[in-house]
Amino acid sequence: MIVVVDNRELVTSGYESLFAREGISTASFGAEEFRDWVETAPESDLSAVEAFLLGDFDDRAGCPRLIRSRSTAPMIALSEGRNLDGTLDLFAAGVDDVVAKPVHVKEILARVGAIRRRENAEATRTVVGEICVYQDGRDAEVAGKAMALPRRERRILEYLVSNRGRRVSKQQLFNAIYGIFDENVEENVIESHISKLRKKLKMRLGYDPVSSKRYLGYGIGVE
């Protein structure tokens, strides 16, 4: 999920639409609403955030410190034009990247991926048993072979593996896949995605690697 912050509804709604075309969920906030949300949001909501996209608003330079107190997700600031002093101030404030508008959402996603790769230069993949997922966009490998999965099943697998050794709730999975404010999708749809994913993994591995316990959630690498 990408969090977009801007006081102009035209800007936030525009990015919501553009990211949706790429299959990426978003949550949009005005500046004051965003500060309140970051301070009070439960960990399950913040863990679903893949990046923060900061538009043009007052006291934007104060946001990175607040965000970092709750999340390690990449922060990208949007610039209305090329302004060296403004760009340097934003980097000094702690943003990870500054992008001049107009910019295509595919470039924003590519920059988010690049930031994550730099931050995880020594951890470009995560392995749990016979399952290996990558942070660079490659298909997961299961039992030594690449496994192409529908986007949402793939995201669920990546989320479970990234949280290996502990259980995650259905709500956490829903937030990570659909976003925290998507009221048009029933939370129970996650059960359908997980069921399909588990069948495919079992066919490849010969066993089901996903453990589930009522009220506790799902996990990979969990006793």
From TrEMBL:
UniProt KW Transcription keyword: yes
UniProtKB keywords: DNA-binding, Transcription, Transcription regulation
DNA-binding interval(s): 123-222
Residue span(s) of domain OmpR/PhoB-type: 123-222
Pfam families: Trans_reg_C
All copies of domain Response regulatory, residue ranges: 1-116
Keyword DNA-binding: yes
PROSITE patterns noted in UniProt: OMPR_PHOB (PS51755), RESPONSE_REGULATORY (PS50110)
Protein name: Response regulator transcription factor
Species for this entry: Jiella mangrovi
Phylogenetic lineage: Bacteria, Pseudomonadati, Pseudomonadota, Alphaproteobacteria, Hyphomicrobiales
